[in-house]
């Protein structure tokens, strides 16, 4: 083995502590990159394989009642490769063990074969048999929640008639990877089911023989969807079409894509930040090593080693540390990536999981690690190259301990001698102290920016379920009913308050911009369900215009006072010109509100309601649910309490794991920065600290001089890190698609406290490890004369 290689191994062993700490920082950045990119790649190939196998459609549209003959005209639209017409209806379910009614989305399928689009993957059981109008295939999530197996039955109210359906099979579909009931924000596994039934059975039940109310299309690859949607809307308009959407806007796929978008951004930005910290840590290690090995470098050059050979030696040292971090990062990223991917696969209900990390991820990770190492060590290596033998053989010039800022301001007298030593050492190395402070701050900011999601979701839950929605349950009718239907609900024993609403599908237009939305007509001075302003205070819905959510107003570029064209997509389809009266703040989806009486006048219809929000006596809740189950006009019942419980369960299950992973990463970063700063400080001040011991300072006082500097830098870094973390949290919130979900920028005191505690624990561990080395200082060495 060559001499320099033997020296390399000895050097690595001598600095094994700082080297491992630096490698951990590199490993953290690499692990985050591998986690994000590996998870994203795995989700992408799993999603694409599932969509391909399940023949997921490109365009989705609904109508009230369209004749089957129209399907030929739809199929003739240029670019349409495949078409699937079907019947889709929402109905209530009466499940054993549940007082309240559940809800099912009935979807028709051919009795003898899989549908042409949006296929059903059977997990258990068999396909429905022709002529068996009572057979159905039930979504796997709902079946598991209720313990349903092939041969079991469930009771549904279909078009006003109670029917028992027999479970023939249990299945999944790419159309419902994220299946949520109307009005919910997260899936409720036991309360919402997808039920596939034979086309003939549903046609007879809903009087849709030779007709359909839903159509999906598959297009030629690469074709723009806008012209097809425009033509499809024109064909469906006479039959009650409410507007087609492409795959990107299909609710289930949109939720999945939003999560993947956030994951992609995270995997790009976070590793850059942490690998920048790693470069700084490596610069400290190599720079200090070169300072202490001046004479060895001079001897090497004097004996004939070239500048390139010396530079190569230290470059190999840096690369060894970087490659150690690379290996640890890939292993940690692969493990945490699999765990994260499994969480996503379970959350989005994929039938299978392809966990695969692409080869380019490893290649880029290697390039990042090597680049971080070389960037970190380059300036120090240049310093070794610049040393000439004669200069290197001489001792380094003594440090210039000029007075600190406290000395210049006359504040030094307020401090003891140890504190003045600490301040002067920081003043001697301001750049190093600043970078150490920044590294600690970024570790704290990582914790804040990841933990804030829990705080944000808590705020969303509080606003949605405690301030905006205060009803006990919401009832939706199959069709709009006369206003007197509210009195029928009031007559149910135990119902305290009934607040009716009217929902109308419409297209809002302003200039060249347009958005499809459901206008919600509210009663005068609503108390149970009401829009809120930016301060989360109730807004009174104006009787003369529209009230839009902020994101919807922004997308339309509408300001209060602007006149908006409203194209109603139901019944007579009137076109209205309505002013924008006010703007509200909604965290979930987009909303448009209007006074219910004014909406009825604009539609030129008798007062009618689509449903109502109810406040009830909890003591007779079971009896109220029984009454609603038996009402043939009721399509669905949504419980606010159940929605809140499901949302909190989802947050706890998914965010706890993610927060734990990122907490470990941030702790490793803080430890790597603090431990290396302490070790380098010890190597730089070792002689001075030992001299203090000879002069009579105790071990505790000497330890205070060294660790007090780290404590001061940590104390200064923490508030900076919390501020940076707040900024990172804002960037994270901006990643989410406001069409579906908006995350408010809320960071609680508990999150800040958690970040502080994690950094302080890392600082404590670092100090404890270095404290043992202070006790082993060589007191005899300081008594010898230094040349």
Strand adjacency order, main sheet: 3-4-9-6-8-7
SS strand fraction: 15-25%
Average pLDDT figure = 83
The count of β-strands is: 20
Structural class: alpha+beta
The helix count comes to 21
Q: Low-confidence spans: pLDDT under 50, at least 5 residues?
A: none
Our Rg estimate from Cα atoms comes to: 34 Å
Note the overall shape. Answer: elongated
- The portion of residues assigned to helices is 40-55%
The biggest beta sheet is recorded as: 6 strands, mixed, barrel
Distance between the termini: 33 Å
Structure description:
This protein is α+β, with helices and mostly antiparallel strands. Among the domains are: 1-64 and 265-397, no CATH class; 65-245, no CATH class; 495-616, Cathepsin D, subunit A, domain 1 (Beta Barrel), CATH 2.40.70. Helices cover 52% and strands 19% of the residues. A six-stranded mixed beta barrel has the order 3-4-9-6-8-7. A six-stranded mixed barrel has the order 13-14-18-15-17-16. Helix 7 (251-292) packs parallel to helix 19 (640-694) and helix 9 (307-347) packs antiparallel against helix 10 (359-386). The longest helix is centred in the last third of the chain and has 55 residues, at 640-694. The radius of gyration is 34 Å and the shape is elongated. The relative contact order is 0.12.
């Amino acid at each position: 083995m060559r001499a320099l290689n033997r020296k390399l191994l000895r050097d690595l062993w001598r600095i094994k502590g700082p080297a491992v700490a630096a490698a951990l920082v590199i490993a953290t950045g690499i692990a985050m990159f591998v986690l994000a990119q590996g998870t994203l790649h795995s989700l992408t190939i799993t999603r694409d394989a599932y969509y391909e196998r399940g023949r997921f459609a490109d365009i989705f549209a609904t109508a009230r009642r369209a004749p089957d003959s129209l399907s030929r005209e739809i199929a003739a639209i240029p670019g349409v490769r495949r078409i699937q017409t079907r019947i889709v209806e929402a109905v209530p379910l009466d499940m054993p063990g549940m007082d309240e009614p559940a809800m099912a989305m009935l979807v028709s399928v051919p009795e003898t074969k899989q549908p042409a689009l949006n296929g059903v993957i059977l997990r258990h059981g068999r396909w429905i048999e022709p002529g068996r109008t009572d057979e159905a295939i039930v979504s796997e999530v709902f079946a598991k929640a209720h313990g349903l197996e092939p041969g079991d039955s469930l009771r549904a109210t279909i078009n006003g008639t109670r029917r028992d359906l027999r479970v023939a099979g249990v299945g999944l579909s790419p159309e419902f990877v994220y299946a949520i009931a109307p009005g919910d924000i997260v899936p409720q596994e036991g309360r919402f089911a997808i039920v596939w039934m034979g086309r003939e059975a549903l046609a007879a039940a809903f009087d849709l023989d030779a007709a359909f109310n839903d159509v999906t299309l598959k297009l030629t690859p690469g074709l723009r969807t806008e012209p097809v949607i425009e033509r499809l809307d024109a064909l469906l308009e006479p039959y009650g079409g409410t507007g087609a959407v492409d795959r990107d806007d299909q609710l289930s796929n949109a939720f999945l894509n939003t999560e993947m978008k956030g994951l992609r951004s995270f995997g790009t930005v976070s590793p850059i930040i942490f690998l920048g910290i790693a470069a700084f840590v490596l610069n400290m290690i190599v720079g200090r090593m070169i300072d202490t090995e001046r004479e060895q470098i001079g001897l090497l050059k004097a004996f004939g080693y070239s500048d390139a050979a010396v530079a190569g030696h230290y470059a190999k040292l840096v690369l060894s540390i970087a490659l150690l971090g690379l290996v640890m990062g890939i292993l940690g990223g692969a493990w945490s990536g699999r765990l994260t991917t499994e969480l996503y696969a379970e959350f989005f209900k994929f039938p299978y999981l392809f966990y695969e990390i692409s080869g380019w991820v490893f290649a880029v990770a290697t390039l990042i690690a090597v680049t971080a190492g070389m960037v970190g060590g380059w300036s120090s290596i240049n310093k070794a190259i610049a040393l000439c033998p004669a200069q290197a053989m001489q001792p380094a010039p003594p440090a210039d301990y000029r007075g600190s800022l406290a000395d210049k301001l006359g504040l030094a007298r307020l401090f003891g001698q140890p504190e003045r030593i600490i301040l002067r050492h920081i003043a001697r190395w301001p750049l190093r102290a600043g970078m150490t402070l920044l590294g600690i701050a970024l570790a704290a900011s990582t914790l804040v920016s990841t933990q804030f999601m829990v705080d944000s979701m808590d705020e969303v839950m509080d606003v949605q379920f405690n301030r905006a929605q205060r009803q006990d349950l919401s009832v939706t009718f199959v069709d709009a009913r006369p206003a007197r239907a509210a009195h029928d609900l009031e007559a149910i024993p135990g119902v305290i308050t009934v607040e009716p609403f009217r929902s109308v599908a419409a297209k809002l237009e302003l200039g060249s911009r347009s958005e499809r939305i459901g206008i919600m007509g509210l009663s005068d001075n609503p108390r149970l369900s009401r829009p809120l302003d930016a301060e989360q205070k109730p807004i009174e819905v104006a009787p003369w215009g529209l009230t839009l959510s902020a994101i919807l107003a922004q997308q339309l570029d509408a300001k209060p006072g602007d006149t908006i064209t409203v194209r109603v997509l139901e019944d007579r389809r009137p076109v209205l010109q309505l002013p924008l009266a006010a703007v509200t703040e909604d965290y979930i989806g987009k909303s448009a509100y209007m006074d219910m009486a004014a909406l009825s006048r604009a539609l030129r219809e008798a007062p009618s309601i689509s449903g109502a929000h109810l406040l009830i006596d909890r003591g007779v809740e079971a009896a109220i649910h029984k009454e609603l189950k038996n009402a043939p006009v009721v399509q669905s019942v949504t419980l606010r309490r159940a929605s809140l419980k499901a949302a909190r369960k989802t947050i706890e299950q998914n965010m706890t794991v993610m927060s734990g992973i990122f907490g470990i990463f941030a702790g490793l970063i803080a430890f790597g920065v603090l431990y290396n700063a302490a070790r380098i400080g010890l190597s730089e001040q070792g002689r001075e600290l030992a001299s203090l011991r000879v002069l009579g300072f105790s071990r505790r006082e000497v330890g205070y001089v060294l660790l007090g500097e780290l404590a001061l830098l940590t104390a200064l870094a923490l508030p900076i890190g919390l501020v940076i973390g707040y900024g990172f949290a804002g960037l994270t919130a901006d990643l989410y698609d406001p069409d579906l979900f908006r995350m408010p920028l809320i960071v609680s005191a508990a999150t800040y406290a958690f970040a502080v505690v994690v950094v302080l624990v890392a600082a404590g561990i670092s100090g404890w490890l270095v404290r043992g080395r202070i006790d082993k200082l060589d007191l005899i060495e300081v008594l010898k004369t230094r040349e």
